[in-house]
Design brief:
With about 475 residues, the protein is an alpha+beta fold. It is built from 22 helices and eight strands. Among the domains are: about 90 residues, no CATH class; about 70 residues, no CATH class; about 70 residues; about 70 residues, Arc Repressor Mutant, subunit A (Orthogonal Bundle), CATH 1.10.10. The chain is flat.
C-alpha cells in the first residue's frame, strides 16, 4: 500500500564553498600556485590584480529577482561536484596572422634515458638491433636497473613492435648497453650492478678480492658477517677494510648519478609555506606568498550584469543562457577567492599557535626544548577542529634560522621521566641518535645497552620502545652498524 507522509530529519552537508576551503587547506604553496594558474585559465571571470570596489555584490539580487526569481537555473553544487572542474572548457583563437609570436627557449638538459639513447648512436648497429636496444633502454628504470630479464622481453617486443628476436640476441644487446655510462647501468640485481662497476676499475689485488666477496660472499657482506669472510678468504681485518672501502665507493643506483635533467631536480625542491622571523626573541610568522598573485573578479563580467539589469524586457533566450553562464563563472571566482583568503587566515592562525607553543625551540633551535604536543593542543588554542589542524600540518614546511622543518616535526607524544616531568619523545630520540653517532663502531650499542644509557639519563623505557624509536630514526640494528 502506497501512502504519502512528511518526515523531518537533520543531516550535515558541506556547502560547495566549504569543500573548496577544505581542499585548499591540504595543498602546499607550490601546488597552490599551479592551482591558481589553472583556475585563471579555466575561469575568464577570475583575473590577477588587487580587489577593487564594484557592484558585484548586487549581481545575485539583480539576477535572482528577475521574473520573481524563477528563471535562475544555476546550481552551484552541480558546478562544484566534479572535483572543482568547471563545466566549460574555454578556448579562444583571437590571434591574427599579423601577430608576432616569440618562443622563449627553455633548456632542461638531457634526461637519463636520452643520454643512453645518445650513447647508442656511437655503436654500429643495424636498424633491427637498434630497435631492440631502444626497447631494452625503455625498460631501464630511473635508478639504472633493468628490472626484467632479457629473455622475458623477447615475447613482448614481438607483441608490441612486431620484431622477431631470440634470447641470445637480446642478451647480446643488453650486454652492449651495460658498457654504457654510468658504470653499472643495465644490471638486473644489486650484485650484478656492483660487479659491472668493479670490472671497469683497475684490477688490483683489492679490486679482485672485492669481486670475489661480491660474487661468493654477498649475503655475508650485506649482513656484515665479517668474521666469516676473513676466515673464508684467509685475510686479516686490515685487508678486509681495504676491500670494504673499494665496495662502499661504488654506486648502488647508477641512474641517480645522472644530473642532466634540471627539471627533474627542481621537482625535489622544498618551498616553505611559512617564514619565521626572530627579532630579539620576538617571533613572527609570515606566509610565503611571494609567488601567490592577488585575485579579483573581472569587471567586464560585472558590467555585463549591469547591462542585463537595465534591459530585462528585451532579453532573448540565448542572452539569458549567456547571463547564466557569466553568473556561474562569477560565483566560481568568488568562491575561489574566498577559499584562498580563508586558507591563508587558517594557516597563519594555526602556525602562530604552534610557534607560541614551541617558542623555546624556535628561539634556541635545540630538539631538547621541544614540548610534547598533539593536534588537540593546537585545536584547543585556535578553536579549529582537529581535522583542520591535521590538514594544515600535512605537507607544509616552515623556514627558520635553523633550517626548514616540516610542520609535523613539532608534534610528538609525551613521556614521563624518573622525576615525574613530562618530556617529548623527540628529546628521547635525539639522545638515541647522539648515542649511536658517538658509539664505538667496532662494538656498537645494542638495544639493551641503549636502554641502560637512557636509564642513566633518567628515562625509564622498555627495550621494545627503544627498538621502535630506533626504527623511526632509520637506525639499523647493532650488527649492521658494525665497522672494521
Amino acid at each position: 500500500m502506497l501512502k504519502q507522509q512528511l518526515q523531518q530529519k537533520l543531516q550535515q552537508k558541506l556547502s560547495p564553498a566549504q569543500i573548496q576551503v577544505i581542499k585548499m587547506l591540504e595543498v602546499p604553496t607550490l601546488e597552490l600556485e599551479e592551482r591558481i594558474r589553472q583556475e585563471i585559465e579555466e575561469n575568464p571571470a577570475l583575473e590577477e590584480g588587487p580587489d577593487t570596489e564594484n557592484e558585484s555584490d548586487d549581481i545575485d539580487d539583480e539576477f535572482n529577482n528577475e521574473d520573481g526569481g524563477n528563471n535562475n537555473d544555476f546550481d552551484p553544487e552541480e558546478y562544484m561536484a566534479d572535483d572543482d572542474i568547471p563545466d566549460y572548457k574555454l578556448k579562444a583563437n583571437n590571434t591574427s596572422k599579423d601577430d608576432k609570436h616569440e618562443d622563449i627557449p627553455f633548456s632542461v638538459g638531457m634526461t637519463f634515458h636520452e643520454n643512453l639513447i645518445d650513447q647508442l648512436g656511437l655503436l654500429q648497429l643495424s636498424e633491427h638491433e637498434r630497435m631492440l636496444a631502444e626497447y631494452a633502454i625503455g625498460n631501464i628504470d630511473e635508478e639504472g636497473y633493468l628490472r626484467r630479464l632479457p629473455e622475458s622481453m623477447v615475447d613482448d617486443i614481438v607483441f608490441h613492435a612486431g620484431i622477431q628476436t631470440t634470447d641470445e640476441e637480446m642478451n647480446r644487446i643488453v650486454n652492449l648497453i651495460r658498457q654504457f655510462d654510468p658504470a653499472g647501468v643495465g644490471a638486473t640485481t644489486l650484485r650484478e650492478c656492483l660487479l659491472l662497476q668493479l670490472e671497469r676499475k683497475k684490477q688490483t689485488k683489492d679490486v679482485k678480492l672485492a669481486q670475489k666477496v661480491i660474487t661468493d660472499y654477498f649475503e655475508e657482506f650485506s649482513k656484515k658477517h665479517y668474521d666469516k669472510i676473513t676466515k673464508a678468504l684467509n685475510i686479516d681485518d686490515e685487508q678486509l677494510k681495504k676491500i670494504i672501502n673499494e665496495i662502499v665507493r661504488l654506486n648502488p643506483k647508477p641512474g641517480n648519478a645522472w644530473g642532466g635533467n634540471a627539471l627533474e631536480k627542481s621537482m625535489a625542491t622544498i618551498v616553505p609555506d611559512f617564514i619565521l622571523e626572530n627579532n630579539e626573541n620576538q617571533l613572527s610568522v609570515h606566509l610565503n606568498n611571494s609567488n601567490i598573485p592577488e585575485l579579483r573578479v573581472n569587471n567586464t563580467y560585472n558590467e555585463m550584469f549591469q547591462d542585463y539589469a537595465s534591459n530585462k524586457k528585451n532579453q532573448t533566450r540565448e542572452m539569458k543562457d549567456a547571463v547564466m553562464f557569466v553568473k556561474q563563472k562569477i560565483d566560481a571566482a568568488r568562491w575561489f577567492i574566498d577559499a584562498i583568503k580563508q586558507r591563508q587566515q587558517t594557516l597563519l592562525t594555526t602556525m602562530t599557535a604552534i610557534v607560541e607553543f614551541q617558542k623555546e625551540f624556535f628561539i634556541e633551535g635545540d630538539d631538547t626544548y621541544l614540548k610534547p604536543m598533539i593536534l588537540k593542543d593546537i585545536a584547543d588554542r585556535t578553536g579549529f577542529d582537529i581535522s583542520t589542524i591535521s590538514r594544515v600540518s600535512n605537507s607544509k614546511y616552515i623556514q627558520t634560522e635553523f633550517g626548514i622543518f616540516p610542520v609535523k616535526y613539532f608534534f610528538s607524544e609525551s613521556m614521563t621521566n624518573d622525576s615525574g616531568e613530562e618530556v617529548s619523545t623527540r628529546e628521547i630520540k635525539k639522545i638515541l641518535q647522539d648515542c649511536v653517532d658517538n658509539e664505538d663502531k667496532r662494538k656498537p650499542l645494542n638495544d639493551d645497552a641503549l636502554v641502560d644509557v637512557l636509564k642513566e639519563k633518567g628515562y625509564i623505557i622498555a627495550r621494545r620502545t627503544v627498538a621502535k624509536y630506533r626504527e623511526q630514526l632509520n637506525i639499523p640494528v647493532a650488527r649492521l652498524r658494525k665497522e672494521i
